[in-house]
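Following up on my earlier thread - several people asked me to post the actual chain instead of describing it. Fair enough. Here it is, all 258 residues.
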Amino acid sequence: MRLLLLSLCSFCLLFTAGCIRSETVIYLKGDGSGTITVTESISGAGQKMLEQAGPQAAAVTPMMEQMLSTNQKQLTAQAVKWGKNITLEKVEVFNKPDGTKGRKAIYGFKDINEVILAPDNPGSQPGDETGAPTTFKYSGNELIIKIPENKANDQKEMARMQQMKQIPPQMKEMLKDMFISVILKTEKKISSTNAYYQLPGKDGIVLTEIAFGKLINDGAAIDEFSKTPPSDRAKTHEAMKKYPYMKYENQDEITVKF
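Reply from S.P.:
Thanks for posting it. Predicted structure:
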C-alpha cells in the first residue's frame, strides 16, 4: 500500500477495518518455494464498537463477511494478487476465548521469483501511483528485494498526515487495535543483510510492522512525519528510529545473503 504508515489517505481506506490485525508471513525454503500465510482478525471489543456504529456498520458488514469467508473460489481468485502460479493451500476461521474472530489463509508458491507485493496486498510495501509492486529475485545463496520508487505528492501526503490530529476520540478508540505486519522468514540462516530489521534468530527480516493505534495517539510522531517528505527514504527512516512501534523497510533494494 502506497506509504501505508504515512498516508492518511491509506489510513482512511482502512478505517472501516480499523480494529483489524493483518499479519502476513512469507516463508522461503532453500529451494525457492514456500508459503504466504495471511492472518486477519478483529477483537471482540472491536466487533461491539462496530455494532454500535449505526449507519457506518452497514458498510463494514460486507467487509467483515469477506474477511471471515472460507469461500474457496473467492480466495483462489485472490491468490493472483501475490503473483504467478500461487495456489491456495488451506484456509481456516478461528474464534479465540477473548471474542477475537479471524481467518488464516495459506498460499503456496514454487518460486519466490514469481511472488510480488502489490500495492493492494495486506500490509504490502509502497508502490507508485501506477501500482508498481515489490519484487523478489532469489538465486539460492542470495535474495534481492526491490521496492519501487514512491511517486506520491509529498506536500499532499504530509498535509494528510497532519490531519490525523483531527481524528475524534471515539474513532481513535475504534482504531486502537489496528496492526499490520509483513515478515519474511527463511529456512536458511542469514549470513548478512542490509535490511533494517533482522529477526533475532537470523531467520528472517521485518518488511512492515506498524501499530496504528499508537501512531494516531502520538502527536510528536504525527508532527514529525508531517514535516518529512515521504519520497525522502533516508529522512523517513531516521524519523522512524524514534518510534519503536513503527518498522518499515523503505530501501530501494534489500539484499539477503545465506
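The chain has one domain: 8-257. That should answer part of your original question.
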